[in-house]
Amino acid sequence: MEVEEGVQIDDKAKRMRDMLSSFYSSDPSSNASSLQNYTSSSSRFATLDTINTTSFDANMYMNLLVQKSNLENLLQKHVEMAAEIKNLDTDLQMLVYENYNKFISATDTIKRMKNNIVGMEANMEQLLEKIMSVQSKSDGVNTSLFDKREHIEKLHRTRNLLRKVQFIYDLPTRLENCIKSEAYADAIKFYTGAMPIFKAYGESSFQDCKRASEEAVAVIIKKLQGKVFSDSESIQARAEAVMLLKQLDFPVINLKVKLFEKLDQFLVNLDLESVELTNASVDDNELPKGGTVLDSASSAAHEASIREFVEAVRAYRVIFLDSEQQLLKLAQDFVTKHFEATRQQIKKQFRSVELLAILRVIWSDVLLISEVLPEADLPDYALQAARIVVKDYIDSTFKHLLLDISDALTKAQVRQKEGVEGEYSLQVALEASRKAVIQGSMDVLLNFRQLLDENSDLLLKLRDSIIDWVQEGFQNFFGTLDDHFLLLSGKSNSASQNLNIPEGISVLTGLVLVLAQLSLFIEQSAIPRITEEIASSFSGGGTRGYEYGPAFVPAEICRTFRSAGEKFLDLYIKMRTQKISVVLRKRFTAPNWVKHKEPREVHMFVDLLLRELEAIGTEVKQILPQGLHHKHRRTESNGSTTSSRSNPLRDDRLSRSNIQKARSQLLETHLAKLFKQKMEIFTKVEHTQGSVLTTIVKLSLKSLQEFVRLQTFNRSGFQQIQLDIQFLKTTLKEIAEDEAAVDFLLDEVIVATAERCLDPIPLEPPILDKLVQAKLAKNSEQISVS
Fold it and tell me: CA 762, 764, 770: angle at the middle one, nearest 5?
């Protein structure tokens, strides 16, 4: 339906155009042909459209209309035709109204054109006659002057040739005058102008002139070379000298190589100057009041050198137009060497103030060079190099902090190995190590804070990265410190090349105890304070990817050093117990216990054991706190923490003198084991004096019990062990906190000895007490004498 409506609209528009065309057309045949074409083109849509053609037949149209339409359609067609006629009248009227002014203007224009054309042909004929007259007179003049003009042109050519010959003969003199007046451009202009004649006749007619001119040109070339290499000449003058040399076909490439070698040497001298300034800043222990490392004179000299380099680059860009890539490489190499010299200085003990001063100098140099070489993109290039330098500085600072802590610990190890206890005790080593950790960390944070406070563009762009590097640095530092503690304690076989650990120094027990307490200090004091400082001054960052997690995890570090403190404390106890085990092994493997003699005094191994425990107590008291004293004393009631077999063994054996009674008592002892209350011998070790000493005593007595079980004793050997254990009961009460556990283990040693004895008859209590008292008196006498 929509397609049919579109077709009807197009047909109506075409019909309107055809009608207007036929109305205004002066050729009826063309009008008829257009209408015929329209009819033929539109007949495929409606057969009743022939009403618009010149061959319209009303009768045929009406018959066709009546045949194809009913009454209702006829009435509708009538209404449509009436409306169409009315619309056509309206359209024609509007068309006439709109174009009326155009019609009037066109009529006036046509009238004026008819009036202006009148008389134009006569004027054109007069103009043609005058042109023909001028042409005839010009031909006459040319004919009369032809011979004279040819003669004049010949004379002119001869004159020009004579002037050229005279110029060639005068050329050497002209060149000398130009050299004296330094008019090198005119001299080269004269010489290049004479070059075609010299090439053609230089070997015959003008041989002398050519030789003299070439000698003068050689002098000019030397003068121009000197001007190019002269730093006093202006850039424009040096560029003009190079251009003149190019006109003389001089090999400028060799000149360019020499100039760039000179510029390269200048950069080498500038690098040496920068290194000397840096070394002076590092060797200077006191900073100037202004806070800058480089003094004003050195800074001014350096800035003058950089400006001289910048001017040289500007000149070279003008002189050698194809030297851009070579200049870019020189500038980048200069910045690279500058940063490389800084990296070498960072390996020493370097302060952030010094680093900032050097970075300021480098950044100012980069900005000056970028003004003449913007294509080098030196700011971004310097930013990447500065990123590496600052990262290296942060890593180097943490390495020096680790060295300081290591020095404090290894100093204690060396002094303890040499036996110098008074000069450098374990307590002093612990305090020095604590100070190295906490004060060193605060100094490091202060240094890094100065990097963040710098307001230069270079450091501002690296601010977030510096924050991340500091946090990562502390995380890695404490991980490395933990590994180094393991290395010092002998639990790690990995070599540390960068740490000052003296070779041949064995691991000492006192150092292990210091490491245990230092680890506890790091967990409880150092990490919280460092975390607080990082949160207040180094929060932010963000260059680290979220997938890697936070850079600084204090909880993880605390767990690491809590575990390290426990491991080192256990290692200390193990090392001390092993040393005591060596004394016990020597005691029980050397004699023949089956042939042992009757005991007369407490054996000397007891003195050695007590001496070892005394040494342990000395070390522990220097490092560990006392803690709360909880003396666990044994009771006499059944089911108490004491062994129910100890008193029966001592009392009943006094009244029995034969082997059968002793063995029956041993049987009673085994029966008592079934009904005694179970005792917890080994508990968790705490970082206190009493806990460590008690644990070592317990382990030593347990070792003593195992050594006893490996031997076979006669009666005298059994009595000797009884005497030694009785003496230890008296002395160990003052050392160990858990008296009940110590008594229990001592009784276990007696029982184990009785089990391995061929004739387990104990000493009588009076004799036992007498020997113990004699030993105590002897020890008191030795103490008073010493």
Answer: 120
Q: What percent of the chain has pLDDT over 70?
A: 72
Whether 430 contacts 623, CB under 8 Å = yes
24 bridge partner residues:
none
pLDDT tens string 682-720: 678 888 888 888 899 999 999 999 999 999 999 999 999
The per-residue pLDDT for 438 is: 92
Residue type for 664, please?
S
* Residue recorded with tokens 């522990």: 620
Closest CA to 542 of 452, 463, 478: 463
Element containing residue 670 per DSSP (H, E): helix 659-675
CB 718 within 8 A of CB 768: no
pLDDT of residue 90: 87
Count Cβ atoms below 10 Å from residue 309 Cβ, excluding itself: 21
DSSP per position, 156-220: HHHHHHHHHHHHHHHHHHHHHHHHHHT-HHHHHHHHHHHHHHHHHHTTTTTHHHHHHHHHHHHHH
Half-sphere exposure (Cβ direction) of 398: Cα atoms closer than 13 Å: 18
Global pTM reads: 0.62
Residue 522 pLDDT greater than 80, yes or no: yes
| Triad 253, 254, 256: Cα angle to 5° | 60
The pLDDT score that the predictor gives to residue 653 is: 42
Alpha helices by DSSP H, listed for 419-508, are 426-453, 457-461, 463-489
Beta bridge partners of 757: 713
Reply yes or no on whether the pLDDT at 677 is more than 50. no
Give dist(CA 78, CA 705) in Å, integer: 139
- Name, of 429-443, 620-634, 647-661, the range with top average pLDDT: 429-443
Helix (H, G, I), strand (E, B) or coil at 8: helix
Which residue stretches of 710-764 are H helix?
715-732, 739-755
Are the C-beta atoms of residues 369 and 309 closer than 8 Å to each other? yes
CA distances from 659 to 669, 755, 759 (A): 15, 13, 7
